[in-house]
Amino acid sequence: MSTSGSTILDSDLHGIAVSPGIAIGPAYMYARVSFNVERRILEPEVVEEEYERFERAIKRAERDLHKIIAVTREKLGEDSATIFEAQLLMLRDHSLYPEVQAYIKNHNVNAGYAVQTVMSKHRQMMEASDSEYLRERANDLLDIQERIIRHLRRARVLSAIDEKTIVIAESLTAADVILFSRRGVLGCATEFGGPTSHVSIMARALSLPALVSMKDVSNQVENGDIVILDGIKGELIVNPDAKTLKRYKTKQRRYLRLIQEDKSLVPLPAETLDGHHISLQANLELREEIEQLSEYGAEGVGLFRTEMLLLMEGRALVTEEEQFAQYKDVVEASSPGPTTFRILDLGGDKMLPMAHREHNPFLGWRGIRIMLDKLDLLVPQLRAILRASANGPTKILLPMVSALEEVREFKVVLAKTMAELSEEGIAYDPDVPVGIMVEVPSVAISADQFAAEVDFFSIGTNDLTQYVLAVDRGNDLVAHLYNEMHPAVLQLISMTTEAAKKAGISVSLCGELATNMRAVPVLLGLGVDTLSASPIYLPAIKRVIRAMKQSEGQALAQKALVASDAGEFRDMMDRWLEEHACGVSFFLEGAGLA
Ligand code: PEP
Ligand code: MG
């Protein structure tokens, strides 16, 4: 059902703004969730027709895949195309295709049901297999199963997504967002997901305005409806009237102007009024983003999420050479500033085909836990990072650390890898600093012990918040409980900075809290010395820093630590920002990050 008459605000849809910007254009309804096909019994005389329907769907799926292969080959190279080439072959696999036909005939059922039954059976066998290769292929099978069923239903498929549309979906994956942005879509809105889910992070990285947690959006919008996506305020307006459209076009221009104006701050130092310098660095996910370092004035890369390369490629393994080529470019672009490479943080919501199914993936096999178990992933990545370190200042960051043994075990692998490189006569920085993400409460609580073993801390508030508050960061049902400004989170940050100060190591904060203008003065007051965020936010953060004194931040931090709840903290900071007229109001409008 479409909503018309956009002047009635109640008819607009509200969600959480997770990637700033205003997008205006036609809606594209994207159905990714698996179809559950009903069983229909056919009259024997129409079975032949059903064969033909199946054959037509296969042909359409083949056409899709040819197109996808061509685009992938052109944009991402031959290697990335192989996954789709394999899918193409599976469509006419000699055991699958005839088995579906036989199922239609023997059971007198519709083609969709036959495809679903036969392919699910094969998939389950593959998932249960001991062979990692077969387990990986299980996901491909699901992909083609959905593609064929979509065609049987004549639904539109991803390859047909038009440029300049706004994608509306129940849920998306980080890989979907990458594909959309490459196809030139203007923005996306989903029913599920939270502000720090990796879909949101990816949307920000690709400057794609996005909303999540839009309850029921896929039932409220129809394909082709004109929508305004307000990625600042968290609103979706469906079929706006002329007056609303005009207002939003003005807002869009104002936003773009503000982003431009903020850029006047780029050459200025991130320094408080009393001369305290803060290093502002960038969170990057893809090599393509390196131009943003100078564009937004980043002093280095505070967090390079290396796993996004894998997600983009859709492969379980990217070779040492491929990684080295990427890392070297990033190190060179960031130099003389440092580049902090986080080793693969797989698991959680960053599932790969090779991953095992888990009931609680965020509490399961994730980050350093996977890497220490899978040296075939860790060692090539370490070699690539170390080789890149010969080209400029490089740091290594370990994700999801929860115990000291993990750090010690990692150091043994690092020393061995360094020794191998030395033997091979390959250059690297032997003093490359090793730090850990502080994102599991045990690490913040025992920060003194960890500080003695590592060169730096990087606080990951996205996970720290979910773990300390027991609130899944990607679950819209509990999104209202996910609050990075909770005093308990601040207490853990404070314990971390105290321990770092005592041990004389640096402490950075690279969670989305760094982009929350209300939190910036308090974080400085707590002694964080680097803030790392999506580059687009850096000028606004700098604006806040340049309007405050370090001593003021310390006083605010003392109050925030004893606030009764996040609301009290928020109100206090709203008053402060208003008094200090920081001009960051645009980033404060939203219901989500801002
Ligand atoms: C974090 O947890 O705060 C973080 C920066 O890492 P990620 O969002 O990739 O989990
Ligand atoms: Mg994390």
Could you explain how this protein is built, in words?
The protein is an alpha/beta fold and 594 residues long. 47% of the residues lie in helices and 12% in strands. It has helices at 47-76, 78-91, 96-107, 111-127, 132-152, 174-182, 198-205, 217-220, 242-262, 291-295, 307-313, 320-334, 368-373, 375-388, 404-423, 441-445, 447-451, 461-469, 487-503, 520-525, 538-546, 550-561, 566-579, and strands spanning 13-14, 16-19, 22-30, 166-169, 187-190, 210-212, 226-230, 235-238, 279-284, 301-305, 339-342, 394-398, 434-438, 456-459, 506-509, 530-533. Strand 4, helix 6 and strand 5 form a beta-alpha-beta unit. The radius of gyration is 25 Å and the shape is globular. The structure holds phosphoenolpyruvate and magnesium ion. Magnesium ion is lined by residues 437, 439, 460, 462-463.
Number of helices: 23
**Radius of gyration over C-alpha positions, nearest whole angstrom:** 25 Å
End-to-end Cα distance: 31 Å
Oligomer: single chain
Return the average pLDDT rounded to an integer.
Answer: 87
Strand order of the largest sheet: 1-8-7-3-4-5-6-2
Number of strands: 16
SS-based class: alpha/beta
Can you tell me the overall shape? globular
Ligands (ions, cofactors included): phosphoenolpyruvate, magnesium ion
Helix content: 40-55%
Q: Tell me the fraction of residues in β-strands, as a range.
A: 5-15%
Poorly predicted regions are 1-10, 155-159, 589-594
Q: What's the story with the biggest beta sheet?
A: 8 strands, mixed
